[in-house]
Amino acid sequence: MKAMVLAAGLGTRLRPLTETVPKALVRVWGRPMIEYPLRLLKHYGIEDIVINLHHGGRQIRDYLGSGARLGLRISYSEEEELLDTGGGLLRARPFLEAGTFVVINTDTIIDVPLADVLRFHREKRAAATLVLRPDPEADRYGSMDLCRDGRICRFLRTRSAACPPATRGVMFTGLQVLEPKVFDFMETLEAGPKFSTTVHLYPRMLAAGEPLYGYCFAGFWQDLGAIERIREVENRLSRGEVRLHYL
Question: CA-CA distance, 180 to 136, in Å (whole number)?
Fold first, then answer.
């Protein structure tokens, strides 16, 4: 299995740190934040990884190289202009389209049992499985609804006619398992080369009746997009309140 780590963002919320280094290399508890998703993937035997690059791409290349130091085989997908999540995935299609693949954000730490997510994805025969979590602020950031069997029945403003009323509202963690068929839907979008999976792709797939599922996860997750959030997770790790099973 292969994976993609999304690392092309400008990291504007992390300035001034990202004025000299790309967001992916901002240190969190002694290591660049991109090492957390990379070590999670490695722990579950996913060693062929593509990373998309834009801001500070050369520094990321210089730090990670071929990935051999981490026991990985890393390829890179350069973006002259930011292509957003969907455009970045479509650009990396030749690397990913051979089979089921994982996509994860650079700027999150998640202590998820990835083997269980993959098992769930296969059992449901999903086109896409998004790792979701309950959050009191879900509606503020863009929530979605799940049916009792885990199928996504509402994504932002798009609702599936095939699902009964929702049982819970949840939000996306930034980790997802996808089938190559997502690329077929990308090709039919009229959003241009730059588009979002959440805004453009998944609502389109949901309306078409494609099996989109949510794996609900209540364990540790932390967004690293702001300096105060990095300090919060560092404090919790230092105090031993959080232990990441893949480190």
Answer: 33
